[in-house]
Fold this sequence. Notes:
Layout: H1 26-42, E1 46-48, E2 58-61, E3 69-80, E4 83-87, E5 95-101, E6 104-110, E7 116-122, H2 125-137, E8 152-154, H3 162-176
Amino acid sequence: MTVRPIRYLGDPVLRRPSKKVSRVDDSIRRLIADMTESMIEAQGVGIAAAQIGVGLRVVVIGMPGEDPFPLVNPEVIKRSGERRLDEGCLSVPGYRGVVTRSEFITVKALDANGREVRIKAENDLLAQALEHEVDHVNGTLYVDRVDSNEDLVKLGPADPTLAKERATVTAEQTEGN
């Protein structure tokens, strides 16, 4: 297992829809292990393969207090309701934004053994993480879902070097709309 560097906003791999995995084999399981270690090291609750530079439809979800689990070729098959949430992303460090997410979501995917699984979540962090990570495999970032620049907030103390990052986030968000 290897901790791989997280890719940041502006890296083209984050904007490309990821390719479907044709077969879950040992190479995919190694990727899942690397993703899991990378997510834990970065203190995230989810990570998509694109966030470590791999353009495959693989995500790992790690809810607090639970073992992380992979989803290969995840696809939202049902969603309903809406809720406004504060959201961040390992690939957009130092920022949070208010986005609209579903209240209820069902995702279909394959597990690490290639068996089909369905995950249902409602009004919780898991529902948010599932939708966020499926967005990643589709080339969408949460900054694409904020309604306005006022919904995107810089975290932490004022730092003049972050002004450039804010401009980059705003430019990337505008390009995605």
